[in-house]
Each structure stands twice: as C-alpha cells, then as structure tokens.
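Render this sequence as a predicted structure.
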Amino acid sequence: MIDILLPILTLLSGFLLLIWSADEFTKNGAKIANIFKISPLIIGLIIFGFGTSAPEILVSGLAAWEGNTGLSIGNAIGSNIFNIALVLGVSAIIAPIKVPKDILQKEWLFLMFTTLVAGVLLWNKHLGVFDGLVLLSLLILFLTYTLKAAKKQHSHEFDALKHTIDKGQTFKTWAILLLSLVILISSAKMVVYGGIKIAKFFQVSDLIIGLTVIALGTSLPELAVSISNVLKKQFKMVIGNVIGSNLFNTIAVLAIPGLIHPSAIPSLVINRDYPLMLLLTVLLFIVSYKFGKKHIINRFEGGILVVVFGFYMWQLF
C-alpha cells in the first residue's frame, strides 16, 4: 500500500499545480495579448487554446521521451473527447453558449480537416516521424492563418477582459507568465511519473491511463477556464478555448510521440477512441449550427454531450 501512496500523492499534487499554473499562464497571457490588442476570439483560440493545452503537450512529450507512447496518444485523443463531451457539455448546462457563425465556417472546418488527416495518418496503426511532420506543418498553417486573421480585425471586444496594464505591471506580468510555465513543466513531470507508476501497480495499460486519468487531469485547466468564461458570459472565449485546445491536441500533442518515439498504435485507438473523437467533432457542429436561427448550444444539448462522455467512460472499464 505504501508503494502506491507516493505515486497517488505525486499525481494529485501534479494536477493541482497544473491547474494553478495553467490558470496563471492563460490569465497573464490574456493580459499580454491585451497590450497588443488581440480580439477575445483569437485569445480563446491561441492564448487559452495553447495555454490550456500546454499540460497535454508537456505530459505527452515527457511520456514519449520515456517510451510510454500509449500514454501520449491516449492523452491527446482522450483530452479532445473530454474537451467536447465534458468541458463544453458542462459549460452549456451552466449557461447556453452562443456560438459565433464565423467560427463554424472557419475554425471548426479546420478542426474537422485536421481530425480527418489525423485519422488517415493513424490508419496504418503506426505513428512515425513523417506523420509527426505532417501534423506539425498543419500547426504552422493554423498559427499563420490565425495571426493573419488577427491583424485584419479592426473591432476589438476588450470590455469583457477587464485587464488594464500600465508599464509598471508589464514586467510583473511577464515574470508570472514565465514562472507559471516553469511550474507547468515541473507539474507535468509529476503527473507522468504518478500516472505511469499507478498503471504499473494496477497492471493497467498506459493507453487507458492516458485516456482517463491523465486526460482528465490535463483537461481540468480547460474546464476551469471555460466555466469561468461562461459565468462571465464570454462565450467567444469558451468556444475558442475548446476548438483551439482540440486543434493543438490534434496537431501538436499527437505529433510529439511520432517525432520523439515512433511506435505502433494499439488497435483500440483506431476502432474505439478515434471514431468517438471524430463523432464528437461532427456533433459539435450539429449542436452549434441552427439554420436561420441564433447558433446556441442549449442545456439539453450540453446534457447529451455529458451523457456521451459517461457512456465512453463506462465502455472503457
């Protein structure tokens, strides 16, 4: 019993530090973005999307480096499932989410495209360097497009951000941003260590640990940020955070194991986990798009997403 106590404490401590550091990272990232006058949607897609995906990126990188590619792949796919089914579902139950029409015509389409590309790359049940480079090129394409779109926007909606920064606060903001990044890296290492040790103790595959425990832990920042934004009625940031995070998970997190430690992919990923991730990406559009009406994800639709999540968890065990 003592042998498992330390890994559990390490895992829980790592999760708590992940949540705190991710929150500080995104909060101060938003302040920095405010200085450069970037719109809330762009902040949701890049600052929050990347910031809340940083735990997944770091955890997957460390796991792949140590040869636990199942944990890396499970973390990437599991986090995408958690983000749509749990994070967006719970957020919509708290308050109906207004979805900007343009995000369904642009960012969601890119997410759908990258999800399909990832499926094609995973189909041969092997994730290698070529696959990682293809996904990495999509990441560069997404960042280039988003930054160009940000420069073209002339109307900026900063009333909801409430971040006014004078020159005296700028240094402090950068310092906290860097400190939170260091803690993110350290806590990710703790999560990987605890997750691997627990998996070995209970003789559970690292894929299942990645799909459940690690995916839940690294998705907590997305959940915390989304609930906070829903309560503040910052709906563009909520949907931007989920789509942005899923994009980073698909083209950045999933690329890492291929680039660091090429290996075979378990058949269950192709037969069970990826199809659900694809289904939820399609379902995201279905519950958001209303012909001739306001695009709103209501509480009932949020409940459907949570039920899908519950069914998936039941199926895993």
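Summary. The domain at 2-316 is CATH 1.20.1420.30 (A middle domain of Talin 1). The radius of gyration is 19 Å.
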